[in-house]
User: Fold this.
Amino acid sequence: MRVTILTIFPGMFPGPLAHSLLGRAQKSGLLQLEVVDLRDYTTDRHRTADDAPYGGGAGMVMKPEPFFRALDTLKTPKTKVLLPTPQGDLLRQQTVEKLASESHLLILCGHYEGIDQRVRDAVVDLEFSLGDYVLTGGELAAMVLIDAVCRYVPGVVGDFHSVEEDSFHRGLLDHPHYTRPREFRGREVPKVLLSGDHAAIARWRKEESLRLTLRRRSDLLERAGLTEKDREFLRRLADPREGAEKK
Ligand code: 6GU
Assistant:
């Protein structure tokens, strides 16, 4: 997969993307990261990328011309153009997974009050948001998206099974994990995990996922593809006659 980042702060890259699995993916050629300085596509002596907003008001707006000029060069018919902004569609695992099958992503990083609307209207395929808060610019959001998408590129995560087992891939929050020692500062590993009974362990994990998802993100349950057994478990959890829910 090829990812192009268009930014006025090229020095922020590769930053964290040079480490861990994504660092390895770049060395092995699975991920080709290309960072382009938006100011290279300005035409004035001061390499101006922003201007005052029409209609007045605070802040600056990123000019359309450098984006259009850069895209004329960088965009191919296969390119998906992404724009991180707080106004975008909330980024979910389903979208992340779909983007992983693209061959070329181009991410436009905005700053200040935003970018001229005509860039959005003419060239952006997907405007995405990470959540209901405001970042100073699109670069960190671009890094988050690249990290999440690359996990789904075959070969980036050595054991793809762990990607498929992941929280959100299956629509539920993850269950707790334990490693040695069996007891630490008075806290014990749940007995079932030491039992060697794989069916019981799988059931325990599923029920812990259901319990946590019900408590913290019940909105996810509707889309989680639950079995009748799962539903029965959730009904019992919600029923006050079954006793207070375990904290
Ligand atoms: Cl994707 N970009 C920016 N600039 N701010 C954000 C965001 C994205 N998601 C939440 N806040």
